[in-house]
Specification:
Helix content: 40-55%
Shape: elongated
Number of strands: 5
Number of domains: 2
Low-confidence stretches: 49-56
Strand order of the largest sheet: 1-2-3-5-4
Structural class: alpha+beta
Length: about 190
């Protein structure tokens, strides 16, 4: 491969990798799907010792783009700083690419570890205890107070029988933003 073609490959790799890495860092949750006609689809190959998981989606693409960006930068650096030939530039590019992939993996893995857990859905409240703050009257409507996800929440509540303010209740069901409760016996 000629020196000009190699320089074009390294420049394109650096620009494309850097640009896409920046976009992937800014635009979390942005997905692109490519639909190919059925005649262009590759057959599904199953390899028994490899498993596909979605647990580390946040780091796969940045690692690849980090390698791509630093591969291009390393190839250009090898030509300008060291005046190397094609084989030397490629070797420097691979070393830089591996370093870029490692740095991207470390950064995005650390960011993934400090993410908060998934928020509690209202359906997860079934079986939890709450306290009645607005009495549930004859018509069965009132308000309960409970703590979940580290915050105090007040939710509308219904019950089959009246429940006095201050009583402890158990959540039986969730309907929209309201809960159905039953009174618990006093301790």
């Amino acid at each position: 491969m000629s020196a000009d073609a190699l320089e074009l490959v390294f420049t394109g790799s650096a620009v494309l990798g850097t640009g896409l890495l920046l976009l992937s860092s800014i635009g979390g949750g942005m997905h692109v799907r490519l639909h190919l006609p059925s005649r262009f689809r590759a057959p599904h190959v199953r390899v028994p010792f490899l498993r596909e998981t979605r647990t580390d989606d946040a780091t796969g693409m940045p690692v690849l783009l980090g390698f791509l960006a630093m591969f291009g930068i390393g190839g250009l650096f090898g030509a300008v700083a060291f005046g190397l030939g094609p084989a030397g530039r490629s070797a420097v590019a691979l070393v830089f690419g591996a370093f870029g992939a490692a740095v991207a993996f470390a950064i995005f893995a650390a960011l993934r570890r400090v993410e908060g857990r998934e928020p509690t859905s209202l359906g997860d409240l079934v079986g939890r205890k709450a306290r009645v703050v607005v009495s549930i009257g004859e018509r069965g409507h009132g308000t309960v107070l409970l703590t979940y996800d580290g915050a105090v929440q007040t939710l509308p509540a219904t019950a089959k029988a009246p429940i006095a303010r201050g009583r402890e209740v158990e959540i039986l069901d969730v309907h929209g933003m309201a809960v159905t409760v039953r009174s618990l016996p006093p301790p």
